[in-house]
Specification:
Length: about 2050
């Protein structure tokens, strides 16, 4: 139909373009059979800018043009003229051309709406939104269609606003039948536009467009147009005669047609009635069927059709058919509606016969009819009428012809993408995010080929990109629109805003370095809604989720992905993100961001989209199949028609395939890296096959006759054909229905290919080198990949590489890529060189990471902890710092150890408030119940989020706290670690307090209310601020500190990212080299996307994709490289499909169609496996509704029946309503959860293992519901998961909860056949389903078929019957609810067991299935056995009888006492319990009982005098020597302090420990020494040296870093040009200060000096004139303000004081004359202060002189290591531990160890000297002890009881105790004890000599006197030593050895003889024998002339050895002397 206008003129170019564009757009809709015909928005305009112009249909534009011309032409021109209509029909012309009067023009919708027929109908009946844009004012509004009941259909149909016309616009399309018609219509439309534009009609048209939305356009007569139209209709209705059904009775078609078209008004009213009454519509259809058969009145027919179309009759008809479809339930209804269907089809066929292009008008009706016909075909016992089928086929054929004709005619104006997809940025831009542009999308072509590669890639790229951009764009657009209308825009949003988008408020917590690089830890503002979320199962903020950050409502934004979300952190609102775009840390500081989150897994999208953009022509293999859909598949390029395979491994599957190893073996390289290359050079052994498989040795795989039989290869027929096809076709598809062995076939194909790898693995490169290509295995899930690679590992011993860190397989752990990175690689190999480069880069990266992590940890702690004022010094004003560090009342300066900022912030008060708050809301502690673990499809991503930042640990925390923290809350402790319940409760309460206090502190610290600098400058006293202002000021300081840290991090970040990029490049190179050397590589689709660039480089020739039907097509495409020559896809498109994030893209754009499914749809040959090995026949029967050709293997027919249940398969129906979970966007059903758990528990009682049962559900909400009723201990081991996460897995028994049950009769995705297939195919032996099956059958034909089948098999009901295995004939237990399973508490029934036990009792349990023989049962009845003559066993029956325990009176034979003895016990064996009357040898009464042995250790307390002379109370059995005297020593030490130790600690007053009194001396730095007396180490206080620029950060004992800033001592009179650390080169300025104080009075200071703000002569006269030096009351006096203490000192006196030299030469800082506070920071006296500091630094330098200490340490080490004893033992290690030499060696080892320890810390010279002294004293004491031991053993024969020996044997150990210094007191005491020991040894020597001469009795008195002195319990003073020496000299008279000790030593030393050469004659005169010491000649004694010497080594009679001379035990020549065991090594020296 065309229109004509009387006025003609030239058309503007814009209007022509507009009409042509619309013409092309609408034609394109029809031309594309993949797009919906009824929705012109299916091909969305290329990024059409919204609010640009009103989009009108062609039909509307025509009418609009006519109306626009009204103002310039006659009023009659508002009607349209139909070409070809006769003049007599002119009266009806108005109603056919002009739709403007009644049709409201609507702007174009923002987004396309394309729904299936059912979903469209549901949309119309339910609540949905339609959004439009008003171009005249730029505003948006929503038109909401309310949910209508069926009774309201009349109103809906009658109201044009709610009609289908708002959605469909195909009736606006021109009716093109051929190319000529198209061109004529287009020319006619262009001419129409020219007419519209004549006489300036464009302005009129524009004005009309602006006024259209208002609908208040006036006519030329001033009457509103709406009212005028209404008046016209009323007038016409009065002249028209209404139509009635009786008018058409028994009339022919022509008459009926004429009657219908006589009156336009009557016909319209008749049509309106059809919208109100369904019965009326049915009758009208009968009339129309008759009228449309008329062939004689074509003009009347056109008039009728146009009227029907204009009044939207076909929209009404579509809705009527929708309703009718719902009524088709059985045969009766089908027959009833058959008549209507025939009438409708006849009308369409008649009209299409006349005008084929009119098919567009019937598009919706056509689709509904198609659905109705499908429903009719599913009705039982109903046969569709043949005529209906034929007519529908005719319509379908003509429809295709029209579409094809239009498509071919518009090829020159084909709809092209607006830009090259390769130039599109992966991440969306601002306009796109805010919804200002619409994406250009085309559907994935399920059937048919693509134009070319770019067309294909463009479609895949845009759809995949829209899948992650769409939710973000739609959600943010919705948020922005809602924000405009929502007044409360400040309220935090944590709920869903649009689609799956969620909005949060969050701030930056701290930067953090992770394995992902430089990341940001964010902190959510935890609203009530967020606190209620169960984060352990929530889908929010999981690993990989895409988030969008903005602080200006998305005017600008940054995209990021979530990389860390630990459960403990996210509960506090903490999660970690990685920014996809660069943003400076400073830009994020102190900002609250809005974060928009979508569930899109961005990590995968990013890599795949990048990969698609990089693909160029020729890069994709198999393009002819994938793009052009060619169905004839070639052989693999690496094969020829003569290629042969060795298929013997398929026949003998036990044979292992061994390959040459190219990758290092982990075990070998870790143990012996130098030898692994030799190991790999060993020849690879060939597998040994039996002769029976020789027929498979050389098989021409292209010759079917050459193949062995399928039985020989262990295949069924379908498997046999699948393997053939896979090995011989380069592009192979294998469909595997559930249980048919997809993985098995995949492994067999892999086995054959790996054994014949010589055919494909090696190829020659252009340069002549060999290229070794790996095989790539790709799976959708980690579980499937692990399963497949484990299968490969079972038969292949070669290089397998598992890529990805989420493997749970222990078998594959050693084959993981990460492990190969750590293997040894020789530096000469390429891999070794790359590894070396990576490790060097990693080292650099680690250093940067540590620095950044340290700063990050500081930022993190500062948000929860209070910073010390000394650390804030650099950012706070001096006066504030002074106020915090100096108490003006006590004149006290606070040091580093104390902090007043905690007091200033009133933290103590805060703690009290928190405790009070907790008391008002006390929680009772209880142990948290643990439930069974469950997993859903997102479990892996949640686990990935559990990450830690690199180098984060308590080391950094301690470091930061020690440096800068004044207050922090201690960490919580797990209460379960405590033993008692009270302790757990107390600890839990304390934890609550800590958590709340930490949270409260965090809120105070991180508040955004920060004081400004201007406000802080106006503060007079920080102590007078309110609590709120104090925190605001603190936050200002904190902000400055954090800003400095952020700047530091930002500087390092750029370098870090650079090095990090280098590291990633090195890592990728290393991974590439490892992969290049592998034979089999396995990775998931996500991993393949990540490593796509590596895969392109290594070019695997063979790629096997498992689960191919679940993988998005783009993922597989990016995995392929041009080197790939063989692709094998294994999957099942009837199970789970790919799951896009945006459901609309799946429904409307086929994004959920996998490459696997698309290839099958395009008739690429595929093999379907048919023999299933999993399900028992009953369960497999369900699958045959989906797979009709499925066959059962024999093994499934022998499965046992499920025990305890009446049926192996059962559907339990219920109508309990579901619950919805808005947070999880999921559903749950408690009734089903309880039933499922009850059934699971019942099956476990049937003796099934927990691993045999799986609980499945279809919704995550139900998964959590089930989890919460399954205690861990009871159900651990039972697998609980969602259906989507269980594809490819199986179990013996499956219990399935279907969840959905609602009043809206919706079942969601459960109507999807794919999910039904997966859910019902997991069980092997038994399967039980619970759900609302009536609702399912009403929504799904497949469910209906299955349920009907189950009803026939009696496997359907509202309850499950349980039978007792023990009482199978008894009544069954009927289980309708979960509690019904309690009727069989033990798995049997409710009867008692009543079995007779071995003991004779009856079993008291309810009927039980397990332990039927009562082996484990414990009878609790009383035991009836008699265990003695008169007594029965008192225990329970199950316990073993004990001997009779009854007490009876018996006489004990041993003592005669009568005792109560246990009946079974013999009196002789009984221990009499009467008290013992025996007296012990010590005189005390025995405390034991009569029958027990007497007391051996008497515990009576007695008073005993110790060796020290003190009397103490001890136990009788204790020995005196073992008691350490506890009496206080109180001896006066050398330091003149009283000893603080006890007598025992001071070793009886002989050796006093170092004095423990505090030193309290003032050190050079001005601090008081806090160490012990006379032990002043370097000061460890915080250094207080500071200048105006900075504060020293070192400890006081360390050298200060000199400030290099310019000196600040400047005034208008003098300037200092030196550095701050250098002496100033200017004089002191004595001019008065010209500044005013805060009180507005003049300052009393000096020029250039700081002013004392509150020291005013006018305001505080008394304080100023307080006399100290004498001149303070002088009116002209000037004062110097000391910043260190706050005092003001008269300047002249202060100058004199500072210039005075100290009387002592001590180096010390001068202090304030008033308070003695060291003056460190006063510029006026900078020269004096700097000189003092310089001298102090010199002292520190001397103390800390490392070179001197190193020299001491080196010399000490050298001396110790050169010791002969040390050298000897180090080499031999054979000296006994008891020897003196070994003890000396131990001493040296200990001292050397301490030296090494000191090298790692700060070591002083005193410590080194102490070690040297310890060695000297130890050696001396050891010598004394050993001599003492030798003399005691010789003289007395024992060491026992010798007090002096006991004392000295402990001294070496005492000397060697670890300490920093040996005090002077200890050194003196050790020297004295050495004298005591040596004197005692001399005494023993003399005693031995006296004993030899036989004068012991004569000398006993003197000896006793000496021993008494030596044993005295006090220090061995000089007078004691002199007295002992005198007594010893007197003893010599008894020895006849009239020489002194000194003389003896000089004689022995002078002779130079070794031991054993000294002898004496018979009269005891001494002589010596030289040489060997043996007598060889005789002589005479010069004293008495007796014979001396001897012959032949024999002494003359009467001569003997003289040991008193040299201590020898044997003569030097004797055999004993040569026995090393008899001598001490030291003695031999």
């Amino acid at each position: 139909m065309s229109t004509s206008i009387s006025n003609k003129g030239d058309a503007s170019k814009n209007d022509i373009d507009n009409v042509a564009a619309d013409q092309i757009e609408q034609a394109e809709m029809i031309s594309n059979p993949e797009e919906s015909l009824d929705d012109k928005n299916d091909c969305v305009a290329p990024y059409v800018i919204k609010q640009q112009r009103v989009q009108l249909s062609l039909h509307e534009k025509r009418n609009l043009g006519m109306k626009a011309c009204e103002g310039k032409s006659s009023p009659s021109s508002d009607t349209a003229t139909l070409s070809g209509i006769q003049d007599e029909k002119q009266t009806h012309k108005e109603s056919f051309g002009n739709s403007l009067q009644e049709h409201k023009v609507q702007p174009e919708p923002l987004s396309s709406v394309e729904l299936s027929v059912n979903s469209r109908a549901e949309c119309l009946r339910s609540s949905s939104y339609r959004t439009y844009t008003n171009t005249s004012n730029g505003r948006s509004w929503n038109t909401r269609w309310q949910k209508l009941k069926p009774s309201d259909q009349r109103e809906r149909r009658g109201n044009p606003k709610h009609s289908l016309g708002d959605i469909q616009t195909e009736h606006d399309l021109p009716h093109f039948s051929n190319k000529d018609t198209i061109l004529r219509t287009a020319v006619s439309d262009i001419e129409t536009v020219r007419v519209r534009n004549s006489s300036n009609s464009s302005e009129v048209q524009s004005e009309t467009i602006r006024q259209l939305p208002k609908m208040k356009t006036k006519t030329n007569f001033g009457i509103p147009q709406e009212k005028e139209l209404k008046m016209k209709r009323v007038a016409r209705s009065k002249l028209s005669k209404p139509l009635t059904f009786q008018m058409f009775t028994d009339k022919d078609s022509k008459s009926v047609l004429n009657d219908l078209t006589k009156s336009e008004i009557a016909l319209k009213e008749f049509i309106e009635k059809t919208k109100e009454n369904n019965h009326f519509l049915e009758q009208f259809l009968d009339i129309l069927e008759n009228a449309f058969t008329c062939d004689t009145s074509p003009h009347a027919m056109i008039l009728l059709f146009e009227t029907l179309k204009e009044n939207k009759f076909f929209d009404t008809l579509a809705l009527f058919l929708f309703d009718m479809q719902d009524d088709i339930q059985d045969k009766e209804n089908a027959v009833k509606h058959e008549k209507v269907l025939k009438a409708v089809l006849q009308i369409i066929v008649s009209q299409m016969s006349r005008n084929p292009s009119s098919v567009t008008v019937f598009s919706r009706v056509y689709k509904v009819i198609g659905q109705i016909i499908n429903c009719l075909k599913d009705v039982d016992e109903y046969v569709l009428h043949e005529d209906i089928d034929k007519k529908f086929a005719f319509i379908t054929e003509r429809k295709k012809e029209v579409e094809q004709s239009l498509k071919s005619s518009l090829t020159t104006v084909k709809f092209q993408p607006p830009e090259n997809f390769r130039e599109i940025q992966i991440t969306p831009g601002s306009n796109e995010i805010k919804g200002c542009v619409k994406p250009f999308l085309r559907a994935n072509k399920k059937e048919g080929k693509y134009d070319d590669l770019d067309h294909y890639l463009d479609v895949q790229f845009r759809l995949l990109r829209e899948d992650f951009v769409g939710p973000l764009r739609e959600g943010i657009s919705d948020y922005l629109k809602t924000k405009v209308t929502n007044k409360d825009t400040t309220r935090p949003r944590d709920q869903k805003t649009g689609g799956d988008l969620k909005i949060y408020n969050a701030s930056v917590h701290s930067p953090v370095v992770t394995e992902h690089g430089f990341c940001i830890k964010m902190k959510l503002k935890m609203t009530k809604g967020l606190r209620k979320i169960n984060w352990s199962v929530s889908k929010r903020l999981i690993y990989g989720s895409l988030v969008c950050l903005t602080d200006d409502d998305f005017e600008t934004f940054s995209l990021a992905s979530v990389v860390g979300r630990d459960e403990s952190d996210i509960n506090q609102g903490l999660f970690t993100i990685h920014l996809e775009s660069s943003m400076k840390n400073m830009d994020m500081l102190h900002k609250v961001f809005k974060i928009a989150e979508t569930p899109a897994y961005f990590e995968s999208y990013k890599h795949v989209l990048n990969g698609l953009q990089k693909i160029r022509a020729g890069d994709i293999p198999f393009e002819k199949y994938i793009v052009h859909c060619e169905s004839i598949v070639d052989k693999p390029a690496y094969l020829t028609t003569e290629s042969t395979y060795d298929l013997r491994p398929l026949m003998e599957q036990g044979i292992k395939i061994v390959a040459e190893r190219r990758l290092p073996d982990i075990d070998v390289t870790r143990k012996m890296p130098q030898d692994y290359e030799e190991i790999y050079d060993m020849p690879v052994p060939s597998p040994v096959f039996s002769t029976s498989s020789n027929n498979a040795k050389c098989v021409n795989i292209f010759d079917n006759d050459s193949w062995p039989d399928k039985e020989a290869l262990h295949f069924d027929e379908s498997q046999y054909e699948a393997v053939k096809n896979a090995l011989t076709k380069e592009f192979s598809l294998i469909q595997g229905p559930p249980g048919t062995g997809k993985t098995y076939i995949g492994l067999q194909i892999t086995r054959a290919l790996l054994h014949n790898r010589s055919q494909w693995q090696i190829s020659e490169l252009p340069d002549g080198q060999e290229n070794i290509s790996p095989m790539l295995i790709v799976c959708y899930t980690n579980h499937a990949l692990d399963q497949f690679l484990e299968g490969v590992h079972s038969f292949f011993k070669g290089d397998i590489l598992r890529v990805g860190g989420r493997s749970k397989s222990n078998v594959l752990h050693r084959y993981n890529l990460r492990n190969f990175r750590h293997c040894f690689s020789h530096s000469s190999t390429p891999l070794g060189q790359i590894k070396s480069e990576r490790l060097q880069t990693k080292s650099n990266l680690d250093e940067l990471s540590k620095d950044v992590s340290r700063s990050s940890k500081s930022l993190e702690l500062y948000q929860y902890e209070i910073i010390h004022e000394h650390f804030l010094f650099r950012v706070m004003a001096k006066r504030f710092y002074h106020s915090l560090t100096f108490d003006q009342y006590s004149r006290k300066v606070y040091g580093q150890t104390t902090s007043r900022i905690v007091e200033w912030l009133r933290i103590t008060s805060l703690e009290v408030d928190v405790r009070r708050k907790l008391q008002n809301n006390r929680r009772s502690w209880r142990s948290e119940q643990v439930f069974v673990s469950v997993d859903d499809e997102l479990s892996e991503r949640r686990q990935c989020g559990r990450m830690e930042s690199l180098y984060e640990g308590m080391g950094f925390v301690r470091e930061v706290r020690d440096l800068s923290i004044a207050y922090f809350v201690q960490d919580t402790i797990n209460p379960n670690m405590m033993d008692s319940k009270a302790d757990r409760r107390r600890l839990a309460a304390e934890n609550d307090f800590k958590i709340l206090l930490k949270s409260t502190l965090h809120e105070f610290i991180t508040s955004t209310d920060i004081m400004s600098y201007d406000e802080s400058n106006r503060i007079s006293s920080i102590w007078r601020l309110s609590q709120n202002d104090r925190w605001r000021l603190y936050r200002m300081w904190l902000s400055d500190i954090c800003r400095d840290i952020y700047n530091n991090i930002e500087r390092k970040r750029l370098l870090y990212e650079s090095v990090s990029e280098q590291y990633r490049e090195c890592l990728q190179k290393e991974d590439m080299e490892i992969m290049r050397n592998a034979t089999v590589i396995g990775m998931t689709t996500s991993g393949a996307a990540k490593y796509q660039s590596v895969l392109r480089e290594i070019g695997p020739k063979i790629i096997i994709v498992e689960e191919a039907a679940e993988v998005l097509e783009a993922h597989i495409i990016t995995t392929l490289s041009k080197s790939c020559q063989h692709l094998i896809l294994i999957g099942d498109h009837k199970q789970l499909r790919p799951n896009p994030t945006v459901h609309r893209l799946a429904v409307q754009y086929n994004l959920n169609i996998s490459l696997f499914e698309r290839m099958i749809a395009n008739e690429i040959k595929f093999n379907s496996l048919t023999l299933q090995h999993r399900m028992r026949p009953e369960i497999a029967g369900i699958m045959r509704h989906i797979y009709p050709e499925l066959v059962d293997n024999d093994n499934v027919k022998d499965y046992p029946n499920v025990k305890g249940v009446s049926s192996n398969l059962f559907l339990i129906h219920h109508d309990h309503l579901e619950d919805s979970n808005n947070e999880m966007k999921s559903y749950s059903n408690l009734h089903e959860a309880l039933f499922v758990v009850g059934l699971c528990r019942y099956l476990l009682l049937q003796e099934y293992r927990k691993e045999q049962i799986t609980v499945l559900t279809t919704y995550t909400g139900q998964l959590m519901c089930i989890r919460n009723v399954m205690p861990f201990e009871e159900f651990v081991g039972v697998r609980v998961t969602v259906v989507d996460n269980y594809q490819g897995e199986e179990n013996d028994i499956v219990i399935l909860s279907l969840v959905r049950s609602n009043q809206e009769n919706r079942i969601g995705f459960l109507k999807t056949n794919n999910r039904i297939c997966v859910a019902l195919s997991r069980a092997k032996i038994g399967m039980y389903l619970i759900g609302n099956f009536i609702q399912f059958s009403a929504n799904s034909s497949l469910w209906k078929t299955i349920i009907d089948d189950m009803k026939v098999q009696k496997k359907f009901g509202d309850s499950l019957k349980l039978y007792c295995q023990n009482h199978p004939t008894g009544d069954a237990i009927v289980a309708r609810e979960g509690k019904d399973f309690q009727k069989a508490p033990n798995g049997g029934c409710s009867k008692r067991c009543d079995a007779r036990l071995q003991c004779g009792h009856v079993c008291q349990q309810f009927c039980h299935v397990s332990d039927t023989h009562h082996v484990l049962y414990r009878c609790r009845k009383p035991c009836q056995r008699v265990i003695c003559d008169i007594h029965k066993c008192p225990d329970e029956c199950f316990k073993e009888c004990r001997p009779c325990q009854v007490l009876v009176a018996k006489i004990i034979p041993a003592c005669g006492h009568e005792q109560k003895v246990k009946c079974y016990l013999n009196p002789k064996e009984f221990v009499c319990q009467m008290p013992c009357t025996v007296t012990l040898p010590c005189g005390h009464q025995c405390k034991a009982v009569c029958g027990a042995p007497h007391t051996s250790t008497c515990l009576e307390s007695i008073q005993r005098e110790l060796l020290c002379g003190h009397t103490v109370s001890i136990k009788c059995f204790q020995k005196t020597l073992e008691i350490e005297c506890p009496t206080s020593c109180q001896a006066l030490l050398k330091c003149e302090h009283l000893c603080g130790g006890t007598c025992g600690q001071c070793l009886r007053g002989r050796v006093h420990p170092a004095c423990k009194n505090k030193c309290k001396q003032i050190l050079v730095c001005g601090h008081e020494c806090s160490a012990f007396c006379n032990n002043c180490p370097p000061c460890k206080e915080k250094c207080e040296n500071r200048c105006v620029h900075s504060l020293c950060q070192s400890s006081c004992g360390e050298l200060c870093v000199q400030c290099k800033e310019p000196c600040e001592w400047n005034c208008k009179h003098f300037q200092c040009s030196k550095l701050c650390c250098e002496p100033c080169d200017r004089p002191r300025c004595n001019e008065p200060c010209d500044k005013l104080l805060l009180c507005k009075h003049p300052c009393m200071g000096l020029c250039g000096e700081p002013c004392a703000e509150y020291f005013c002569r006018e305001c505080k006269f008394e304080d100023v004139t307080d006399i100290f030096f004498g001149d303070e009351d002088d009116p002209d006096a000037r004062f110097v303000y000391l910043e260190d203490c706050g005092h003001n000192i008269e300047s002249k006196a202060m100058d004199t004081y500072m210039d005075m030299k100290e009387e002592t030469e001590a180096v010390q800082i001068k202090g304030c004359p008033r308070c003695k506070t060291p003056i460190r920071n006063c510029l006026r006296y900078g020269a004096v202060i700097k000189e003092n500091l310089r001298q102090i630094e010199r002292v520190k330098q001397v103390v800390k002189d490392k070179s001197n200490i190193d020299s001491l340490e080196a010399s000490l080490c050298k001396m110790l290591k050169s010791d002969q004893v040390y050298v000897a033992i180090e080499h031999s290690k054979s000296i006994f531990e008891s020897t003196k030499s070994y003890m000396k060696w131990q001493c040296i080892k200990t001292i050397l160890s301490r030296i090494e320890q000191y090298k790692r810390t700060i070591c002083t010279e005193n410590q080194t000297v102490t070690l040297q002294n310890q060695h000297v004293f130890f050696e001396a004491f050891i010598d004394v002890v050993w001599k003492m031991k030798y003399r005691l053993m010789k003289t007395e024969g024992t060491l026992q009881g010798n007090d002096i020996w006991s004392f000295f044997s402990k001294l070496p150990e005492h000397v060697l105790k670890e300490r920093d210094i040996l005090s002077e007191q200890e050194i003196d005491d050790y020297k004295n004890e050495l004298r005591r020991g040596n004197d005692y040894v001399r005494l023993l020597t003399i005693k031995d000599a006296i004993k030899v001469v036989g004068k012991s009795e004569d000398a006993s008195e003197q000896i006793s006197r000496i021993e008494k002195i030596l044993k005295e319990p006090k220090r061995y003073e000089d007078e004691n030593a002199c007295q002992v020496k005198q007594e010893l000299d007197n003893l010599k008279d008894f020895t006849e050895f009239a020489i002194s000790e000194e003389e003896r030593l000089e004689i022995v030393r002078a002779m130079g003889l070794s031991k054993g050469h000294w002898f004496k004659c018979q009269n005891n005169h001494i002589y010596a024998i030289g040489e060997c010491g043996g007598a060889m000649e005789q002589g005479k004694c010069p004293e008495c002339n007796a014979n001396i010497g001897g012959e032949r080594h024999r002494l003359t009679e009467g001569n003997k050895l003289a040991p008193e001379m040299d201590g020898a035990s044997f003569a030097a020549y004797s055999e004993e002397a040569n026995n090393m065991a008899n001598f001490d090594m030291h003695d031999l020296q």
